[in-house]
Amino acid sequence: MSEDDPFFVGHLDARAKGLSRDVRLFRTLCESLSVDLDRLPPTMLVVGSKGKGTCTAAASQYLASLNGTVVTASSPHYVSARERLRVNGAAIDQSTYSKLSEQLNFVLKKSPHLLCSPHGYLSPVGRFLAMACFLAQEIEADFLVAEAGMGGWSDEVSELHFEVLAATSIFEEHVGLIGDNVREIAANKVYLGFSQSTKVVVTLQQNQEAEKAFDLLRESGRQVVYLPESQLQVGSDPYGPLNASLGYHSARLLAGEAGNITEEELWRRLRLPARNQLVELDNRQIIVSSAATLSGLRRCLEHEILNRGPVDSLVLCIPDNRDPDEISKALAPNRIVWAHSNNPKFNHRRTRPLGGAEIVHSKSLGNRVFVSGVIGFAGEVLQALSVSPDDLRWWAQEY
Prior knowledge:
Layout: H1 5-8, H2 11-16, H3 24-32, E1 43-47, H4 52-64, E2 70-73, E3 85-87, E4 90-91, H5 94-110, E5 116-117, E6 120-121, H6 124-138, E7 143-147, E8 164-167, H7 182-190, E9 200-203, H8 208-219, E10 224-226, H9 242-255, H10 263-269, E11 277-281, E12 284-289, H11 294-308, E13 313-317, H12 324-330, E14 336-338, H13 356-361, E15 368-373, H14 375-384
Parallel strand pairs: 1-7, 1-8, 2-7, 8-9, 9-10, 12-15, 13-14, 13-15
Antiparallel strand pairs: 2-3, 3-4, 5-6, 11-12
Helix pairs in contact: 3-6, 4-9, 7-8
């Protein structure tokens, strides 16, 4: 049995049967693990459609700068499931992961009904979240930061007691799963702010339809704080600093104290995976990004060329709802090679000869190769480059 199995086994079969998540299984699992959800450390939850990972990492970094211990649950991972559980920005070590996997496996073997009920299944995100709570309790962490999955109320995070809810930009995504339109999707994510434990909801400026969900929070007397104008220069990085700024200010509210790290210093130290990540191999440079939209690809490519020079080839893997002809035209005259992911759901219908390993070893692509696409694909390339999860620490140095 793989150490990953207890975290992932069974959920695909449940989804194939048309079942959805049963978030109540999360609370039952925590009880079986002797986790007291009412006695967790101060907790921050991150929801949104885009930028949750950056916000989560920035919040974790700020809280760690207070010389405390921060446990973080986030997803998905790039090269190892260990990345989904972090302590002070670093993926948990193999020994800790093995122990957590063994503990989870013991509980699930003893109580297999925890995996699936007549009402739904326990998702991998919920299982990792449960083990993050278990770990936070075991090591007596000072803070817990959790990144939601697709939604909010429909996710296991809805069972947590959290003081601060941070919301990145919300737009139309996962339609039919967490809502039929932007307004319903926003409601799924931010109505968590009605939780009795929630003291404040912090958000970026939202589109008109998503904003209606926040209007209802305010009308009910909930405190909604809009991100103050950041001192960071938007556009100075291909991924933009707004989500990092959201994490920074939300974490300050959670901690109730001002740390020594400034917003600019936090941004300089952040080292997020597949954010124009440079890996050198045999005198060649492979730049790995996780942008998969035209606007994202354009920003990342322009940033790379401006800061490190032109590239010889672009290797792209985009999902089926993107238009490769539009991308080819917009990024001309750059040479574009279309690649495939090992996960077929991320592949476009067009034939794509290259996978992660071929990209790494194909010298015909040139000495500077810009690789970008869906997270699963970026992770496959990083694995082919022998990047370890221990190399994917979220920030540059200890506090």
